[in-house]
């Protein structure tokens, strides 16, 4: 018997994905550069399904049925590149190579083109959900040629997470880099969601002086509301956790320097190029960056920069209501962050000529991935209802939620500013909302400045055309129509 799918790279993610495939009726060829991992997988989990272990790449390729289909699960960058080339050399036209890592979508586009020239289908596939997800059901975002989906569809559907309604969390996102693009934005949204939750924690901790255990209970409660999500759930778990060695709350023994592997940065860089304002995601990336500016932070502690000792000014009776305000502010900001992320997907699709069903994207994020949440049902419903015009925020449900949260949201941002608690994502989301609402933006002034110092021209509100004013030093200005 030959394998209908192969996996290259058997570290945590690859091994988990292979087991998931085997457990769900696939015959899985497995290969790892150092063969002890292959042997270990077979020894420990060989009875979970049908595996065909291989110790050379040739052996591996020969054990695959045609069209040969292989998922590469090695480190992004050079190791992935090397395996793509090696496999391509052994493959025939019609065979399929899948890159299951977090690869930059432009690299995927380049590779698909290269492989297409050799007749090989190349599929960049975003896979979310970590090791647990890979084993028990990830959310999968495959791009690549439409034709490859005929073979991949049933295999991926057999292993993907199932949403509440039973539908598998995978869909063919679009051609070439579309899958990795959508996974990239998923991660950007993940960054924003995590930052918003972190700011909520800070407001409750330093603002209200609550203990990690008390805050954990609050997040447990919030998880029963419209905020219900995996990230809220694990936030409560982290905050409940006590460090065994010291007996201290675990949160207090973790270094407050947030690291990142680059997908959030790509999301923002790509958004800048498109351009689409994803301010919440940008603030989340910058907040991690600031947390790692150790030298500056230490210097700030030495000659403490003036300002209030972080707190939120409230009477005891007001504290309860403020906790609710933070919950509303978190929900409203989350709506903005997701709306911005979906804007980026929509604009990316336009620019790169992909047909992406945004409702389907929301649907496959309902389970398996890191940002899985009840909330995504709302987004898919909104897209499916056809009620969305140019942004998610105009959908009646989200519009109403933003309106209802508004007073709380403003109160939280104002109190945070007065009490010296940084809330970059909360405040940027609120400013985005207010900017979008504004009938006139001060952008008019910027156009005036640009025209004065650089003759960059401006448009007029009262007639079409492109104008430049001859800014004279004597104050005698003349308007000139340039085009
Ligand atoms: C997922 C995650 C995953 C990534 C983490 C960590 O969807 O399963 O996004 O792909 O490893 O998000 O990313 P950072 O190290 O950049 O925080």
UniProtKB/TrEMBL annotation:
It is an enzyme of class 1 (oxidoreductase). The keyword Oxidoreductase applies. It comes from Aeriscardovia aeriphila. The active site is at residues 183, 190. The lineage of its organism: Bacteria, Bacillati, Actinomycetota, Actinomycetes, Bifidobacteriales. Substrate binds at residues 102, 128-130, 186-187, 191, 261, 288, 450, 456. This is 6-phosphogluconate dehydrogenase, decarboxylating. GO terms for molecular function: NADP binding; phosphogluconate dehydrogenase (decarboxylating) activity. The keyword Oxidoreductase applies.
